[in-house]
Amino acid sequence: MDNVIQAEGLRKNYGDRLAVRSVDLSVPGGSVLGVLGPNGAGKTTLVRMLATLLDVDGGHAEVAGYDVTRHPRKVRERIGLTGQYAAVDSRLTARENLRLIGRLHHLDRFAAERRGEELLRRFDLLDAADRYVGTYSGGMRRRVDLAASLIGEPMVLFLDEPTTGLDPASRQVLWDSITEQVEAGTSVLLTTQYLEEADRLADRVVVIDEGSVAAEGKPAELKSRVGGERLRVVVRERSELPGAISALAPIAPEEPDVDTATGEVSIELRNGVESLAQAAEALRGAGVEPDEFGLYRPSLDDVFLSLIGDRTVTEQSALGKART
Amino acid sequence: MIELMNDSRALLGRHIRHLVRMPEKLISMTVMPVAYVAVFGVLFGSAISLPGAEYHDYLMAGIFAQTMLMNVSGTGLGVADDLNNGLVDRFRSLPITSTPVMIARTTSNVLLTVLSSIAMSVVGFAIGWRTEAGPLSVLGGFGLLLLLGIGMAWLGAWLGLVLRSPEVINPVTFMVIMPLTFLSNAFIPLNGLPSWLRTICQWNPLSVVVAACRKLFGNDIATSQAGALVVRNPEPRALLLTVALSAIMAPLAVRAYRKAAAG
Ligand SMILES: Nc1ncnc2c1ncn2[C@@H]1O[C@H](COP(=O)(O)OP(=O)(O)OP(=O)(O)O)[C@@H](O)[C@H]1O
Ligand SMILES: [Mg+2]
C-alpha cells in the first residue's frame, strides 16, 4: 500500500533554534509508526507540522496523499489529532464536546449525535457523558480527546504522547482502543517516551534526538542492533564469580559482561538453545549453582539509551540500565 | 458561505453554553452597566444641568456606547484564553477555516453587550429616559450601537491575538477604552469645556457615533444648538466609521489568529 505519510527534509526553527533539523519519514498505509525521543527532541513540533498546525520551514510532507502546505484543508479532512495536552473544552460535557466536533466535521445534527454516542460507548464514557469534562480525571479526559479525534473517521491518526501521565490500567485501555482503531484500517503516527509503548504498538520506530532521526527500523531490528539475546547468570556466592566467568567465556563471542556488585555475568548467545545448553553444562562442570539463569532480550530501552548516549543517562536511568 | 454560517453557529453554541454556565460573567456584564446608568443618571444628573433637557436623556446614548467599548477587553481576553487553551489545536486540525472561530468569539461578546444594553434600557426607562424620535430612527440608533460593538469586538480580537497574555491585554485595552470614552461627548456636554479640550473631544470618533445615536434617539435637544462640528450630520459619518472599523479589523484579526496559531 502507498505511504500515507511521506516527509522529506522536514525542518522547523523557532528563531535561530532548530527544533526539527531535517527529518525524513514514511508511514505505509495501515501501519503504526512510533516516534521515540527524549524531552525536547522535537516530537511535538514534528507532529504539529504533519497535522498542518505549524508552518513548515523547510522540506515538504504529504499526508493522506496531500501536501500539508498546499492543501491543508484536504489533509485536515483526513486526519485526527490527539495532542500532547488534551484539547477538549472543559466547560462542556463530553457529549457536547463530541457533538461540536462532529458538527465541525460537517456531519448533520443526527449523524453528529449518532457518532458521538457511538464513541462515548466505545470509550466507556456513557456514565460520565453529561458531566463537564473539567471534572474528569486525566485518563477520562484523554479518552474524550481520543474520541474527538476519531469523529471524522480519519485515515491517519496522530497521537502525541497519548498515555503520558496515565496509570497502567488507563494506559492499557488506551492501547486497546488504539489497536482496535489500527485493526479497522487507520494508520497511526504515535510519539512516546515510553519504549514499552512503541514496542507494543508500533510496526516501525523512528528514534529522534535533538531534531534529527537517530535510528529507524522495526522494533526487533533496532533491538538486534544493540546485540542479540543474552544469557544472564547471577551467582549465589561472590566467590563463585571467577568460576562462572571462566566457564562462560569460551561460549561467549566476546568478553562476558561482569557486575561484581550483584554477582552477575552476562554473555551474548549466538546459537540459541545450543549455546544455552553448553552454558548450563559448563557451569555444572565448574560446580557453580547459579541463583538466576535466564535469557535476556534487549529492550527498546537499551536501544534508546545506546543511541541517545550518556547525555541523558542520568535523566533516563529510571527506564533501565545503560549499556554503552 | 453556508458552511461558514454553520461552523460559526456550532462554535457560537459553545460560547453561549459557557455564558449560561458561568453566570458570574453574565451578571457582572449586566449589573455593572445598570449600576452605571443608575449612578451616573442620578448622581451626575443632579450636578450637570443642561438647558432645556434632562441629563439622563443625554447620558443614555453615551453609556450604551461605553458598554459597546467593553467588547474590546471582553473579546481580547476571550481570544487569549482560546489561544492558551489546547482547543485551538483541535480547531486547527478540523476542516474549518479560522474565520468562523473568530466570528463565534466576537459574536458571543457582542451578544453579551446586547443583553447589557437591554437591561440598561429598562433601568434608563425607570429613571426617566424617553426616546423622542420615530421607532425606525430609534432602531437605527441601536443598529449603530450594534455596529460599534461589532467593530470594537474585532479590534479587541486583534489586540488579544497580538498581545496574547491577559496581563498585557488588560492595561492596553484600558488605555484604548479610557481616552475614547472620557475624551468624548459620551458623559459630558462639550460646551463647557476649554476650547482645546473640546477640539480633541470633537475629533474623537466615538463622539461622532454618540452624537449620531443621540440624534437618532431624539435625545439631542440640549446639544443641537451648540453647532459643533460633531453634531452636524453625524449619522453617515458614524455609519462609515463603525463599518470601516469592522472592515479593517476583521481581516486583520483573522490573519493574526492564523499566524498566532501556526507559530
Ligand atoms: N513555540 C516555541 N517557541 C520556541 N521554542 C520552541 C517552541 N516549541 C518548541 N520549542 C523548542 O523546540 C524543541 C522541540 O520541542 P518539542 O516540543 O517538539 O519537543 P518534544 O519532543 O515534543 O518534547 P516533550 O517530550 O517534552 O514533549 C525544544 O527545544 C523546545 O524548547
Ligand atoms: Mg511534546
UniProtKB/TrEMBL annotation, chain A:
GO terms for molecular function: ATP binding; ATP hydrolysis activity. SUPFAM superfamilies: P-loop containing nucleoside triphosphate hydrolases (SSF52540). SMART domains: AAA. It comes from the Bacteria. It is found in: Cell membrane. It holds the Pfam family DrrA1-3_C. GO terms for cellular component: plasma membrane. Residues 5-235 form the ABC transporter domain. Coiled coil: none annotated. Keywords: Antibiotic resistance, ATP-binding, Cell membrane, Membrane, Nucleotide-binding, Translocase, Transport. The keyword Translocase applies. InterPro entries: AAA+_ATPase, ABC_transporter-like_ATP-bd, ABC_transporter-like_CS, ABC_transporter_ATP-binding, DrrA, DrrA1/2-like_C, P-loop_NTPase. One of its GO terms (biological process) is response to antibiotic. It is a peripheral membrane protein. Its main location: membrane. NCBIfam families: drrA. PANTHER family: ABC TRANSPORTER ATP-BINDING PROTEIN, DOXORUBICIN RESISTANCE ATP-BINDING PROTEIN DRRA. Belongs to the ABC transporter superfamily. Drug exporter-1 (DrugE1) (TC 3.A.1.105) family. This is ABC-2 type transport system ATP-binding protein. It comes from Actinopolyspora alba.
From TrEMBL, chain B:
It is a multi-pass membrane protein. The lineage of its organism: Bacteria, Bacillati, Actinomycetota, Actinomycetes, Actinopolysporales. Residues 24-260 form the ABC transmembrane type-2 domain. Keywords: Antibiotic resistance, Cell membrane, Membrane, Transmembrane, Transmembrane helix, Transport. InterPro entries: ABC2_TM (IPR013525), ABC2_TM_bact-type (IPR047817), ABC_2_transport (IPR000412), Nod_factor_ABC_transporter (IPR051784). GO terms for cellular component: ATP-binding cassette (ABC) transporter complex. It holds the Pfam family ABC2_membrane. GO terms for biological process: response to antibiotic. PROSITE patterns: ABC_TM2 (PS51012). GO terms for molecular function: ABC-type transporter activity. The chain crosses the membrane at residues 26-46, 58-80, 110-129, 141-161, 168-188, 238-257. This is Transport permease protein. Belongs to the ABC-2 integral membrane protein family. Coiled coil: none annotated. The keyword Transmembrane applies. The keyword Membrane applies. It is found in: Cell membrane; Membrane.
